[in-house]
Automatic annotation (TrEMBL):
Belongs to the small heat shock protein (HSP20) family. This is Hsp20/alpha crystallin family protein. It comes from the Bacteria. The lineage of its organism: Bacteria, Bacillati, Actinomycetota, Actinomycetes, Propionibacteriales. Residues 23-133 form the SHSP domain.
Length: 144
């Protein structure tokens, strides 16, 4: 259902921890959980402190892109600690053809973006009825 698309994510996370959050040009990674509940695929992204109006969700073919932005603090004060990344967050997921992306639903509550994607009807298991009975065949004699 879901395929990981960013092979450099763990390397970027390590680089951000060692060198600091602002040293890479790649957007910050947003933590994610994904699971299946019955006929629905659920994805949650942790985005504390991100205003809902900065969320942008796009679907093109089977690629889901989520973008968000945590504003940078500005003002006349001295920063004492800065461990939470700010700026642009972006994540792309390649979703399988067995999901109905036309019916994707999104909600945002308490800093958690939740996406619910139903499994497509064509991908759901179905039972095939087997008919039984006599089979009528036309038999034709071939004469030479």
């Amino acid at each position: 259902m879901y395929m990981r698309t960013d092979p450099f994510r763990d390397f970027d996370r390590l680089a951000q921890q060692v060198l600091g959050a602002g040293t890479t040009s790649r957007p910050a990674v947003m933590p994610m959980d994904a699971w299946r509940e019955g006929d629905t695929f659920v994805i949650e992204f942790d985005l504390p402190g991100v205003p809902a109006e900065t969320l942008d969700i796009d679907v093109e073919r089977n690629v889901l892109t989520v973008r968000a932005e945590r504003p940078r603090r500005s003002g006349d004060w001295e920063t004492l600690a800065s461990e939470r990344p700010s700026g642009l967050f972006s994540r792309q997921l390649v979703l399988g053809d067995n999901l109905d992306l036309e019916k994707l639903e999104a909600s945002y509550d308490d800093g958690v973006l939740r996406l619910r994607v139903p499994v497509a009807e064509r991908a759901k298991p179905r039972r095939i009825e087997v008919s039984s009975g006599t089979r009528s065949e036309d038999t034709t004699a071939i004469s030479s």
